[in-house]
Amino acid sequence: MNLEKIEAGTKLALTNKKKVPKQRKSQLIVPYLWLLPSLILIVVVIIFPIYELFSISFSKISLSGLKKGFIGWGNFSNVLNDPTFPLVLKNTLVWTVGVVGISTLLSLGIASLLNQEFPGRRLVRSALIIPWAVSLIITSVIWKYILDYNYGVFNLILMKLHIIDENIYWLADPSISFPVMIGVGIFVTIPFTSFVILSGLQAIPADLYESASVDGANRWSKFVHITLPLLRQPLTISTVLNTIYVFNSFPIIWSMTKGDPVNQTDTIITYLYKLAFMSQKMGEAAAVSVISFLLLLVFSILYVTIALRREQ
Amino acid sequence: MQKTGKFQKIINPVLAYLLFVVLLFPYVIMILTSLKSKEEVYSIPPTILPQHWVFTNFLDIWEKVPLSDYLLNTLIVAGGATVLTLICAIPAAYAMARMKFAGKKFYMYLIMITQMFSPIVLLVGLFREIQWFGLMDSVWGLVLTNAAFNQAFAVWILSGYFSTIPYELEQAAWLDGCTKAQALRKIILPLALPGIITTVIFVFIAAWNEFAVALTFISTEEMKPLTVGIYAFFGMYDVQWQYVFATSLVAIVPVVILFLLIEKYLISGLTAGGVKD
User: Fold this and answer.
1) Residue B267 pLDDT more than 70?
2) What residue intervals traverse the membrane (chain B) (predicted)?
């Protein structure tokens, strides 16, 4: 039936456009009518704000939020001259690569673990869903409490196990708090990643491993030569989506350190939020948004290219 | 499934149970803390199990903050966003799965690009727009935002499901005199039900859990959803952790149940359904 459709399409294309009867012409707009509600929603809520962002980023903005004319690259140069901005960019990179990379490695192990039979497997799988289902802000707030210097149970447990001699300020010093928050990021990223990898593992036929064993392959070479190549698609999906989610992530850092002390633990996302809604510097915040937008765009072009290549 | 050696047979379950403990650890601490008195929450050294189980915390929270408002707002935001997402996404997904038209690729790119952004990156622009609409401090601003940012995901999943349904079924319906819309309603939607349920639950949970937009757009206490509402217990000098966690539990239970219900669709919905043209 696809052939019929294609033939009809070719015939239509071959016919001179002027000769297309009126009814045919009205038929041509039908698909767009079906798309219309979705398009309106996207244009109003996503595309227009993007336009607005660019416009604000090149405008002088009064404290009350009014545009006071074009100022060129002023907002951008203010941001780029802010001595903390390079640190914020570095944090964003460490945060994104750290959370996505370590989550993916751990999830590979967890997924192969859950791909094996053992009593209680279903229960562990269900537990793996919980950090995924629970609101990020709630999980982060719980960890903030657990890591509290005086009242948190994390110090208590480590003391009881004699791993530490005295309580540790987990969320004060950026050289400790940033890795700790990356840990929380990993905790909430693992479920999705493991499930995607697990689905890939379950699609690998068992006889591939059996024939490899016959050929004398050990576990490692089976992993490298069978498992990893066949996991390429799920790993691409999880890495791309995770990179986007983690780059955009706000609640963990916001609830645990608010980027403090003095922007030391800010990523570009918390930095722009603070510029906009705490310092009321809308123009500069818009400039930072535009920079994030461009970073994401570069990444998304990469993603679309990969996705389309896979489709073909 | 791989054959496992003897060593693996013992070590694998141990690792898995360890994982189980780590995954549940923060949520168990949350539940235990929600049942402590304030004095106990602030005792040094801290306790793990409550010395006195204070079940009344779960009654107190309804009095201390407008919790029924929070809950209702969260329900409106999640429910409203889900409905609006479906109203817009179903026809679009159908067109993507079944129709040929110029600009189809363009729409697909547009959808994919929108998936790249969280509302926060666009928040400065969005904030002004919501102000112009007069939707500041209103749940409807949140409904609109959540619906738009989940549009890509919904269209992607739904069109994947629609395109797995045999075309002949629809043609038969047309021959019987159905219009396209009727065929969609009577043939496609019932057959794509698993896909629709997955989409509904995912969008519902995403909107239910959303924090950053609600934090920015809502300032009146009675208009806040649960995720922002828990911050009512963060005082100037101390945090009423027992109430924070009792309220959090109210917010968590419904979504965890929903998520467990769709466990078996999780992955087929996220990967296989999505990539087909």
Assistant:
1) no
2) 12-32, 70-94, 106-127, 147-167, 187-208, 241-262
